[in-house]
Structure formats: structure tokens, C-alpha cells
């Protein structure tokens, strides 16, 4: 029986030193050809452009964004950017298997990518260039099943490369073909469905304040993807208190949704050891070993937490127990990007997430700030890129369509992004009361925005959660939120 990605990961951890040297030798012998010392070149409008290596081509081909400019990686001007895209379009996909951006010997994320690459899944497109792959993805031939079958054979660098040749409409058209279905207490990612994360944060973790925010979201039909709290105090004791509160609410009203306190993964492991009611294990992840070390995490720690959460067997309709967050710029902000543009580093984080079959993955697209995504245009583009690339890698992608108050963006930009992502088939979006997170101090989407998307595009909550909303008399027979839904407050609260 072939090993799963996770089995290969654990196997690699068991005899680390010996296997690294053996695999490095094997990789060089079987997969790596000699890379020409001549750089990638093109003459465009009588001007010669030279690109030293694939990393250089990828960085210069990226749409303009402040993070790459900050790192000194961006194209000098739009003409050089177009020259890089011309070069990129003609590069064979196989080249990305032969020229990894971070050395195999130095980076466990690279080892994960190389060791779990499925040559059989890659075979149908192995003969293509990046440009030909882009054209195929947009063709009638490439339906959802055909694209999904490629997933284990696609490396992050291939996925990043093809996205750089796509306009926004291309990213939407290709991504909407792909469905990634996961389940725990309800089923996420089904056609015609849009999940929502209810984020009842509070600046002091006050239980009454969190409960009020939780109720506000539930009354507006939000929360099927996860009832998830970002704790203001990231301690084991505080996390257990919040988990117990969420568990009491969930069980008292038989809510078919999963809960999560977004504490550090080592805290989650400790809380599970103490018998806390952990549904989903959360962790922010990045695309290099060094960047993940900055988060205080490694692949072995992720595997430990995954096994611990699975052993609790708390899911009712499925067993996907991991929740990952990512965001362009995280590796760069840690000085751990290894000369990669921020989007390529971001897609490598999806390889980390993919190894653990998560229930949810979302890009917190504008959260890091204008140093990495300067304005609404860059945030929208990044959100569409991340969703497309994550789906192509086989992930259940969601998005926190958000921005910080010092970015050149506003709520109209987030309106545009949420609608574009809904058309693209995003698995879930994040919502906070009034679109303003009072604990993290950034702007996101509101509970009411989710109602707009449901009425405008006909998308609905997860079927199990939708049935609960009907049972609580919050939806009318047509599945719309009742105008008098707040009158159901007494029934939800019950006696006492």
C-alpha cells in the first residue's frame, strides 16, 4: 500500500539524519539534472532581460506588490515584469522539479514537497510548459475531477508559476471548477454552499462579551465553518476556560458546528492532555522551515497535534481536525523567505497544510499590513491568488477578507473581494460583528455581509447547520433569514 503524505512525513522524522543524506543523494541522482549556468533570457522591444534562476523569474513575474519591492525582489518596471512572464510561460513544468528554491538538505518543507511528490499524478501535464498548463486549466477539458486528480503531482512552485500568468478572471474561472469537501460536525465545501467562521473575539476575553458576540452571529445564521475565538491571553488555563464555555453553548443548543480557540498548537496539545474539549487544532503556518520556527512550530509538532486531536474522535460526520491560517508576507516578515517572492513562499505553506488533511485553511489576506500588500488592488489580487493556489493544491480554502487601518483600502474593497471569492467558490469566509474586530484591531467582513452573499448568489450554509437554523426557526421555508429572527432569542437562550 503506498504511503500517505503524512506517513512519509513521520517516516522522515523517525530517522532524520540518515534519511536526509540518503534522500538528498537519491533526489540528485534521480530527479535533478544539471541546471544551465546561462540565465533565462529574452529580448523584448530591443532590450535584453536576464533572469539568473527560477526564483528570479518567479519574483519578477509577480504582479506588483509592496512586499516584494520591500525585499528588493520585484521587477524594476512593468516592462521587465512582462518580460519575466514571457520567459515563465515557456519554462517546462519539469524544471520546477529540478530546481527547488530552498535546498533539500536545509529545509524540512522542501523535503516534504520533494518526498511526497506523486509522479503518476503529475504525468498528464508533465510535458507542458507553464503557459500550456495555464491554457489547459482554463479549457473545457480541465473539469473539476481532472484538476483535482493532478493535486498530489503539483509542487507549490508550479502552482505559483501558473497563477502569475493569470488575470483575476482566470483565477476565478479555474478555481470555481474545484471543490474540496471536508467534514467534522458538518460538511464544508459542497457545491452551492458558503461556510462562515463566527469570530467572537473580546479584548479581555470576557465571557459575557464573547457570548453576546456569539449570539449575534448565530442569530444571523453565521458559524457553520467554526465558532472560533482568538484569545487575548494566550495561556493554557485561559484557553481551557474559553473551550469549556464554547462546549457548553454548543452542547446545550445542539449546534452542529465545530469550535476552536486559536491558541498556539503547543497549548492545544497541553489542553488535550488535560482533557479539554478540543475540536479543531489551530496553527499559523508558513512556507519554509525557518519561518515556521518563527511561529514556534515544526512538522513533527503538527503531526503530534494532529494525532492527538484525531484520537479524541469528537467529529460526527468526518474527522478533519486541523485549522491552518496563512498569509502572504509571513516568511518575508520573519526574514525567512530565502529570496522567494512572497506569493511563492505563501504557496509552499499550502504544502505544509496539505500533509495534514485540514478541515479549514484560510489566508488572512490583508492582515500583515501595507508593507506587504499596499492597497485594495493588491489585497484583492492576493486573495484571489491564494484561493486559486490553495484549491489547486487540494486544500479547503477560505479567506479573511480584511485590511488594517493604515492600508490604502476600505470596506468597498472588501465587498469586491468577498463577491469575487464567492463567485470563485471559496469554502468559507470570516465574519465579525460590524466588520470591526475589537480585539485584533483590524477590519474584516460582518455577519450581515454573509446574508448579502447568500441572497445575491444563492449560496447556503452547510446542510447540517442549515437544518439546525430551520429547527431554531431562524430561516423561512425558502431558506432566508426571517425578518423577525431576533424574536427567536428566547427560544435559543431557553429557561435560565
From TrEMBL:
Gene: eutB
Name this polypeptide is given: Ethanolamine ammonia-lyase large subunit
Main location class: other
GO terms (BP aspect): amino acid metabolic process; ethanolamine catabolic process
A cellular-component GO term for this protein: cytosol
Alphabetically ordered keywords of this record: Bacterial microcompartment, Cobalamin, Cobalt, Lyase
Location within or outside the cell: Bacterial microcompartment
Named cofactor requirement(s): adenosylcob(III)alamin
Function comment: Catalyzes the deamination of various vicinal amino-alcohols to oxo compounds. Allows this organism to utilize ethanolamine as the sole source of nitrogen and carbon in the presence of vitamin B12.
Quaternary structure and partners: The basic unit is a heterodimer which dimerizes to form tetramers. The heterotetramers trimerize; 6 large subunits form a core ring with 6 small subunits projecting outwards.
Free-text comment on the cofactor: Binds between the large and small subunits.
Catalytic activity annotation: ethanolamine = acetaldehyde + NH4(+)
Pathway linked to the protein: Amine and polyamine degradation; ethanolamine degradation
Annotated substrate binding sites: 197-199, 230, 325, 400
NCBIfam families membership: PRK15067.1
Domain of life: Bacteria
Sample GO molecular function, one term: cobalamin binding
Class in the EC hierarchy, top level: lyase
Similarity comment: family membership: Belongs to the EutB family.
Amino acid at each position: 500500500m503506498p504511503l500517505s503524505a503524512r506517513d512519509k512525513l513521520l517516516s522522515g522524522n523517525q530517522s532524520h539524519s540518515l534519511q536526509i543524506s540518503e534522500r538528498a543523494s537519491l533526489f540528485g541522482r534521480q530527479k535533478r539534472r544539471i541546471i544551465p549556468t546561462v540565465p533565462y533570457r529574452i529580448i523584448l522591444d530591443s532590450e535584453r532581460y536576464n533572469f539568473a534562476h527560477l526564483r528570479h523569474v518567479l519574483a519578477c513575474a509577480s504582479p506588483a506588490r509592496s512586499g516584494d519591492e520591500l525585499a528588493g525582489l520585484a521587477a524594476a518596471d512593468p516592462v521587465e515584469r512582462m518580460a519575466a512572464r514571457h520567459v515563465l510561460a515557456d519554462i517546462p513544468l519539469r524544471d520546477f522539479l529540478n530546481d527547488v528554491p530552498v535546498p533539500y538538505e536545509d529545509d524540512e518543507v522542501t523535503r516534504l514537497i520533494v518526498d511526497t511528490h506523486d509522479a503518476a499524478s503529475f504525468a498528464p501535464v508533465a510535458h507542458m510548459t507553464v503557459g500550456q498548463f495555464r491554457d489547459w486549466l482554463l479549457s473545457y477539458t480541465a473539469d473539476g475531477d481532472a484538476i483535482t486528480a493532478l493535486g498530489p503531482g503539483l509542487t507549490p512552485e508550479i502552482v505559483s508559476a501558473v497563477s502569475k500568468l493569470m488575470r483575476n478572471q482566470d483565477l476565478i474561472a479555474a478555481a470555481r471548477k474545484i471543490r474540496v469537501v471536508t467534514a467534522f460536525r458538518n460538511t464544508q465545501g459542497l457545491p452551492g454552499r458558503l461556510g462562515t467562521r463566527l469570530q467572537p473575539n473580546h479584548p479581555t476575553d470576557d465571557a459575557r462579551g464573547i457570548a453576546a458576540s456569539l449570539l449575534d452571529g448565530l442569530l444571523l445564521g453565521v458559524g457553520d465553518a467554526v465558532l472560533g475565538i482568538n484569545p487575548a491571553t494566550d495561556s493554557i488555563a485561559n484557553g481551557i476556560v474559553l473551550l469549556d464555555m464554547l462546549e457548553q453553548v454548543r452542547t446545550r443548543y445542539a449546534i452542529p458546528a465545530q469550535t476552536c480557540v486559536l491558541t498556539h498548537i503547543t497549548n492545544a496539545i497541553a489542553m488535550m492532555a488535560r482533557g479539554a474539549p478540543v475540536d479543531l487544532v489551530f496553527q499559523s503556518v508558513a512556507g519554509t522551515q525557518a519561518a515556521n520556527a518563527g511561529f514556534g512550530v515544526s512538522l513533527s509538532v503538527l503531526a503530534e497535534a494532529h494525532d492527538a486531536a484525531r484520537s479524541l474522535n469528537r467529529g460526527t460526520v468526518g474527522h478533519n481536525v486541523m485549522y491552518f491560517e496563512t498569509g502572504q508576507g509571513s516568511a518575508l516578515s520573519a526574514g525567512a523567505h530565502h529570496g522567494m517572492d512572497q506569493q511563492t513562499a505563501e504557496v509552499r505553506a499550502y504544502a505544509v497544510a496539505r500533509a495534514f488533511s485540514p478541515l479549514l485553511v484560510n489566508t488572512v489576506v490583508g492582515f500583515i499590513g501595507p508593507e506587504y500588500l499596499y492597497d485594495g488592488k493588491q489585497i484583492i489580487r492576493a486573495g484571489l491568488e491564494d484561493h486559486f493556489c490553495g484549491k489547486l493544491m487540494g486544500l479547503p480554502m477560505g479567506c479573511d477578507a480584511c485590511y488594517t487601518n493604515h492600508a490604502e483600502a476600505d470596506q468597498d474593497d472588501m465587498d469586491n473581494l468577498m463577491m469575487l471569492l464567492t463567485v470563485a467558490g471559496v469554502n468559507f469566509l470570516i465574519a465579525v460583528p460590524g466588520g470591526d474586530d475589537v480585539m485584533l484591531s483590524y477590519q474584516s467582513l460582518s455577519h450581515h455581509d454573509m446574508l448579502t452573499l447568500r441572497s445575491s448568489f444563492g449560496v447556503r450554509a452547510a446542510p447540517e447547520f442549515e437544518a439546525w437554523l430551520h429547527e431554531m426557526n431562524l430561516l423561512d421555508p425558502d431558506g432566508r433569514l426571517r425578518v423577525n429572527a431576533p424574536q427567536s432569542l428566547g427560544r435559543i437562550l431557553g429557561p435560565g
